[in-house]
Amino acid sequence: MKRRGTKRKAGTSLGLDYYAAPNESVGFMVREVYRSLARSLQARIAREGVSIGMWFVLRTLWEEDGLSQRELGDRIGLNAPTMVTALNAMERAGFVKRVPHATDRRKTNIFLTKRGHELKDVLWPMATEVLGLALKGISRDQIQVMARHLKRMLTNLDSDPRTTRSSPLS
User: Fold this and answer.
1) How far apart are CA 100 and CA 114, in angstroms?
2) Strand locations in the chain, DSSP E?
3) Domain 26-158 maps to which CATH number in 1.10.10.10, 3.40.640.10, 3.40.50.1820, 2.60.40.10?
4) Cβ–Cβ under 8 Å, residues 77 and 166
5) What is the tally of helices (H) and strands (E) in the chain?
6) pLDDT for residue 45
7) pTM for the whole thing?
8) Is the dihedral of CA 16, 17, 18, 21 positive or negative?
């Protein structure tokens, strides 16, 4: 029997209530897990003068240094003004340097400084510690299943023609 005051989403194959209680809503739980991960990581990396926003920039540049400012913003989901603010702070901290593009004067490439590269050895263990804390008591098989489900959810949502994928940081 349908509870009064709840709405059902048309076409939902599982018949889930559209407005579930927060402690039962997958969306709410995913958001709370993200926020808790970010809080725990921020508490650790702040000792090195790194914010959670800087973490995403550093992590991306550790994988591919020298991205243009726009490419970097697109990869981590930051809009242009937010990206500029983050890079200004990172440049002042000595983590990155801006270099004009060799052939396109409109572009600026972002490179890690020596300090930016060195931070990987300091910050990565902190991120590993936070993830270990979050995954405590969950088996490797369960983690793999969870990762598959989360990837499937992303794929499903990426196929929504009414939205574009963006980061909560934007």
Assistant:
1) 19
2) 96-100, 108-112
3) 1.10.10.10
4) yes
5) 6, 2
6) 97
7) 0.79
8) negative
